[in-house]
Specification:
Aminopeptidase; Alpha-Beta Plaits; 13 helices; 14 strands
């Protein structure tokens, strides 16, 4: 077992806090083999949004075996869970994510998030009664487009909490992900089928409508803000070249820096897609996919505590102005709109290796990924202790 640095020694921190963090780090070290094994098991068996049954069962079983009060299938979601410890004092949520991506597995490193969140939660739970705090470990499925946390918010999973926190793998240690609000849609075009050679004049080409809509959005990109993003893929585009396509559809993501900005951009995107339908003589139907994700609003005080704890583990933080901002969207943004929340990034890959790539997936189950599990668990546990001993 590798000896790691501990979250102690920060100036101005009480002896009681230093000792508590030291013990939390020792606890994480004592279960490091277990945490790494769980990370690897989740990585080896990737499961898509709302289908994370093996990961859910593995995490719930581990929590139950250490004696925590555990609720599987929580808040109306088959693959969500909750475990808790402590009876009084500030209550802090530690978040586990564990869904994978289609085709490239854990290329967002959610196996690391799950194992680190588990380790932090267990370490905090072991000290909750003594330190007068409470911890809630939340298993949140379907971050990759399904919005598990949004549904859980609606069902009360985050009620009564004083803060929520998680880590996310990246190619740098950074205070936060530069998150964008996002809403996803599917656009369906309906035309008229006809023989493409014998009677093309009788057809109305749904694929043309989809392509024209796509090109309109491509032109729109020249005139949107630098912090806005629109990207899409075709889902279906006809059955055979000699049949005028009667149906075509596409899946789009619309992103912007704020929810208000997002609503304005959505209207412009819909106009682009509708123009394609008009030009091709087709009917368009827009299906907005629930839920929308809000932008992230990090709590600066909570974030500074986490950063200090992580730096004491030998993880210096990069300057986003130098290395560049990492953009994306997360349903943790919705959580951040209702309570103090952080979503810092922890390095598992070399600089320049982007998330959502096969290369990043490999690093999520590497020695660097394993170190991120242990360091992430330790830094999060120390930050929970900070919140208990010096409430926000």
């Amino acid at each position: 077992m590798t000896t790691r640095k501990s979250c102690v020694g920060a100036p101005g921190v009480s002896t009681h806090s230093v000792q508590a963090k030291q013990r939390a780090g020792e606890y994480v070290q004592s279960i490091s083999d277990l945490l790494i094994d769980i990370s690897h098991q989740i990585w080896e068996q990737p499961e898509l949004a709302f289908e994370e049954r093996r990961a859910h069962d593995l995490l719930c079983r581990t929590l139950s075996e250490v004696g925590l009060e555990t609720e599987p299938h929580a808040y109306g979601l088959e693959t969500a869970f909750q475990a808790s410890a402590g009876t009084e004092g500030p209550e802090i949520a530690v978040i586990c994510e564990y869904d994978a991506l289609p085709g490239i597995g854990h290329a967002c490193g959610h196996n690391v998030i799950a194992a680190a969140g588990l380790g932090a939660g267990l370490a905090a739970a072991s000290m909750a009664a003594e330190l007068g705090g409470r911890v809630r470990i939340l298993g949140t499925p379907a971050e990759e487009g399904g919005g598990g946390k949004v549904f859980m918010l609606r069902e009360g999973a985050f009620e009564g909490l004083d803060a929520a926190m998680m880590i996310h793998p990246a190619d740098h240690n950074l205070p936060t992900l530069t998150t964008l609000a996002v809403h996803c849609l599917k656009v369906h075009y309906t035309g008229v089928a006809s023989h493409a050679a014998a009677a093309p004049h009788l057809g109305r080409n749904a694929l043309d409508a989809a392509v024209l809509g796509y090109m309109n959005v491509a032109a729109l990109r020249q005139h949107i803000r630098s912090d806005e993003r629109v990207h899409g893929v075709f889902l279906n585009a006809g059955e055979a070249p000699n049949i005028v396509p009667m149906a075509a559809s596409a899946h789009w993501f619309v992103r912007a820096a704020t929810t208000q900005q997002l609503e304005e951009l959505k209207a412009r995107v819909v106009d682009c897609l509708a123009a394609g339908a008009l030009a091709a003589g087709c009917v368009m139907d827009i299906e907005w996919l629930d839920p929308a994700y809000s932008e992230m609003s990090d709590n600066d005080r909570l974030l500074s505590r986490y950063q200090e704890n992580a730096e004491l583990l030998g993880r210096p933080f990069a300057d986003p102005e130098v290395v560049g901002y990492v953009m994306g969207s997360t349903d943790m943004g919705n959580v951040s709109q209702v309570l103090p929340t952080i979503h810092p990034l922890i390095a598992v890959a070399p600089e320049g290796v982007s998330i959502h790539t096969p290369e990043f997936a490999a690093f999520a189950c590497s020695d660097a990924g394993d170190r991120a599990v242990i360091d992430g668990a330790t830094a999060l546990a120390a930050t929970v202790i900070d919140c208990w001993l010096d409430p926000l």
